[in-house]
Amino acid sequence: MSKLVETSLMRRVRQQKEVLELVRSGYSFNQTAEQTGVSKNTVGKWAKEAGITSPAGTRWSDFSHRASLTKKVRAAGGTWRDVADAWSSVEGFVGSETNAWNWTRNNAPEIIAAGKGKRPAHVRKAVVAAYMAGASA
Q: Average pLDDT of 63-80?
């Protein structure tokens, strides 16, 4: 029995070393989890215990570019879809026009107040439909 526990412990230590090496080398928690088969939460827990932060984590949390990009795209007559596409070219993931509008409304409302601030069309239609459904009930 003790040999089984020892083997299991050894496997865990080996796996933990592999996970931490990948995170130190620049892999995100998601990439590390996919490569090693360890859950993303466990990867994050082990990294935190070792005092390691994922370099990918800081990239997603810095949205300082969004307001200026949004202003440029909207001033050029771009749609909220164009704004989302501009963000994705910088951030590396695809967002929706609804995400772009909501983020702007919450974090840079002066852009929406400047005039071209309508919600994306499909959101406006859904809001009107919900209102009409409630009004007829």
A: 88
Q: Does the structure show a pLDDT above 80 at 127? A: no
Buried-exposed string 41-78: b where 16+ CB fall within 10 A, e elsewhere: ebbbebbeeeeeebebeeeeeeeeebeebbbebbeeeb
Q: Among the listed ranges 24-28, 43-47, 69-73, 115-119, which one has the minimum average pLDDT value?
A: 115-119
Q: Are residues 67 and 53 in the same domain?
A: no
Structural domain ending residue among the three candidates 11, 31, 59: 59
Q: What is the mean pLDDT of the chain?
A: 80
| pTM as predicted | 0.46
CB 107 within 8 A of CB 67: yes
46 touches 24 (CB < 8 A): no
